[in-house]
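Exercise 7 asks you to align residues with tokens for two separate proteins.
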Amino acid sequence: MKKQFNLRSMAAQAIEQVVEQGQSLSNILPPLQQKVSDKDKALLQELCFGALRVLPQLDWLINKLMSRPMTGKQRTVHYLIMVGFYQLMHTRIPAHAALAETVEGAVAIKRPQLKGLINGVLRQFQRQQEELLAEFAKSENKYLFPTWLLKRLQKAYPQQWQHIVESSNQRPPMWLRVNRQHHTRDSWLALLEETGLHGFSHPDYPDAIRLETAAPVTALPGFAEGWVTVQDASAQGCIPLLAPENGERILDLCAAPGGKTTHILEAAPDADVLAVDIDEQRLSRVYDNLKRLGMKAQVKQGDGRFPTQWCEDEQFDRILLDAPCSATGVIRRHPDIKWLRRERDIPELVQLQSEILDAIWPHLKTGGTLVYATCSILPEENSLQVAAFLTRTPNAKLIQTGSLEQPGQQNLPGAEEGDGFFYAKIIKQ
């Protein structure tokens, strides 16, 4: 028997750690989920992800309904009330249950004396919900984005920024990648339909299927046998551009958690692949993915800026560089990015990307292919980054992806499309 925990207080503390301490939800949430029952895992995730998705709305409501903010040791109560608002507005949890469990959360965080306050604020919100939400819809917070990022998107995409923001604030679609070593996409889709689930193939990416509604991986035909992998459609777009072939020596740089490493091996099972990442912990997921799919690759921990430390002077036929970036294209999958990223991070990331590009280029054979990719939608990390690289690198030639005036291909997040993603295919002359 799992010990009984108060999910609302757990969610409140997790959200507080993201917003106040800059911790990533992908680090905080898994250990918390280990403590609760399977059915509660999904609810805990929904409360955390959901509240972070609409954080400015929840904050605005608290400021409207409370005369002074909760500070110091009472601060967790601020986030507990947010979790209460979120349930009342954005979930199907019956209001009485949402109220009772949230108020009880005060006991779990050792603030039982504030139960009355929490109850009062939530009930006042229930009474005034309609007019409060109408007022919020006219406020400048209605886009649910940090101001600095909103301004950058408005500047970069004067026609599309609203579409980007709306798509980024939605729950993400669930995309799958069919392992062509086992099935064609259409034959696996037929197996899926037999289980009562429905999927749609992607017009451009040959292995990609979008599920009509998200499902647990255990419900997917042959998941344990490696027939299919959960991976966003846009992330799958790297491999057709890389065009790996059997017998080639291929480098997947910044490879964790290994989705693209395994996709390379599905496309070219006899390729000799080296997967490198700076983060030792995340490399364990590369091993997990290789194991589930029954594949072999060389895996090393290393810094992309100093390739001689992990490959000496070796050269590769193809290099996939999925560069460290702001991750602004995958906000719908990681809503905490909106509150973890800072404007000052962007120039630092641009500098890092440019250092990795310059360091790894000498390790590409003449005639070889490098695919530069990010899950960002900011031009500084993408088209401007590639333009600068082409200018300073005479033997680099852009092909298949954009023009010298506008290098690369930029995917924007869409309700039924993939995430925001950028690719540039460069060959060494």
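Second protein for Exercise 7:
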Amino acid sequence: MLSFSLEAIAAVTGGRLTDVPDPSARMTQGIVTDSREVVPGCVFVALAGERVDGHDFAARTVRDGAVAVLASRPVGLPAIVVDDTLKALAAIGRHALAELTDPVVVGLTGSAGKTSTKDLLAQVLPGLGPTSVTDRSFNGEIGMPITILRASRDTRYLVLEMGARGAGHIENLTTIARPHVGLVLNIGTAHVGEFGGRQAIADAKSELVAPLAADSLAVLNADDPLVAGMAARTKARVRTFGMGNYADVWADEVTLDEAGRPSFLLHLGSDSNARVRMGLHGEHHVANALAAAAVATGLGMPLADVAEALSGARNLTTGRMEVLDRADGLRVVNDAFNANPDSMRVALKALAAMADGRRTVAILGEMKELGPEAEAGHREVGKLAADSGVGLLVAVGGEHADVLATAAREQNPLLDVIRAADRDAVPAAVEGVLTARDIVLVKGSHSTGLEATALLLGAGTVGDHD
């Protein structure tokens, strides 16, 4: 964790200290933007949103140990007052990055798989040197400076997840931390309603590789034409990954065990290969592993070491294909951190692969941020659920959950479908329905709150059946 004095932060941000008795007092525990996460020694950033103004919580945060507040106006408490807190955060991030001894910044983006791939890199790159990665999904203009501050001065590999909700967002993030490696995973339908189409998403994601220098590395998905085409937009050396020998890093002999965990032969070009046996659930992790392998080998890590690290990797983030086994035998797959049609498809495929004779149950919440594609997207997922062979579907939410449920019934009139108005209605909906022989997938957009439902269900407090 990097540490700076309040006077240094004021100088970096162009701010002024107000009500600060000791300008040399130090921020030792980074930055937080949520007053509930304040710890002694941190700086609290007072962001003014549409519904909540962080300035209203300034007194509480100082009382809880914040050394100062980064604010856009005086708050009658120790504060660094700046014109724009977001721009000040960016300035702090750039300053913090400059304090690292010799960092290699790895930026990654994509419509799906960012966090899972980031978690793999967190377990592979330490084989090359000290590594720090994005915490949770801190992948925007607020989260990136927080992540950088959490690095240590000797961090060699800084892995930064970069998300975008529109054109120019990733370009802005690259001005805070210019990547030496740019990894683009895929172009899907996440946030398609905000972007206006997949090509617009691709244009936004390409902002990661466009500024790369000639001595940098662009890692691109050869199986996604929109990503592969980004090779023409960068000056950097290009390394590709994919499911065939047309890619630089590729896989074949893919198999799944009874729990849906993939094994495959990892290839680097035509002359080098190594066996990988993953501990993660779902065939989609093969692509994530290939992406991580392409980055690591591109940075000089031997293929055998990469394969060993991938084989030992485990799930680091809750809500991402997290398997919860109850004492009574019920298995819950918590994949409820977020959802879009693409991630729903891979989750349903993984559920089928993990069944191993169990009845499969899918508790699916609504998908947000699909814009005009929302109805079609939910209809598609309803059909996918019916075709995937699930024994029971629970559709959670409002009108779009109705669309999903109706499409599933139309696709398979024999499918057992239950409706739940929201996450709070799920316990009653599944009470007495689930058995110890079931495997239950819980997935929906973050705003549906189904992650909490999955954890309750996995703990045995929801859906018990004699």
